Structures are given as C-alpha cells and as structure tokens.
Fold Type II toxin-antitoxin system HicB family antitoxin.
Amino acid sequence: MKYPIAIQQGDDNTAYGIIIPDIAGCYSASDEYENILKNAKEAIVLHISGMMKDGEPIPMPTDSDNYKDDPDFEGVSWATVDVQIDELY
C-alpha cells in the first residue's frame, strides 16, 4: 500500500515535518532529509500496528491529489511510502 506523505520544509533549526493525511493522528519528523521516507514508514507501521491491536479498521491510502486544495497542506512537498500491511500480521 502506498501512502502519500506531506513533507513540511525544515531548516537548520527545525526538523522536516511529516504528515500522513490518510491516517488520522499519524505524524513524524526528521532532522535529515535522507531519513524522511524511513521515518514516515516507521510511523505508519507503528500507528497501523496499534490500530490492528485495537481492532480498528486500517485506512486505505488515497492519492495526494485529494489534498491539493486543502489549505492545511499549502506549500508542502509530496512523496509516497510503500508499506506492506501483510507483514504486520
């Protein structure tokens, strides 16, 4: 499953912010640009694992275009993270 992630620009004093909009409450951050995808995947796996333990439905990924007109995502960069849900069982 390929989840879109929104990346908020970081700088010398601020980490890159990572938002997974398809999974409510799922966020991460990275001091290094190179670790954004790894950190996002870790956040998704941990969040979904908790949802599975709680018996909650797993949100399906959508396309980042669903958020293009959302002012909360103005100025972010987009990427996708591939998470194999069957590996979590």
About this structure: The longest helix spans residues 36-53. The mean pLDDT is 93.
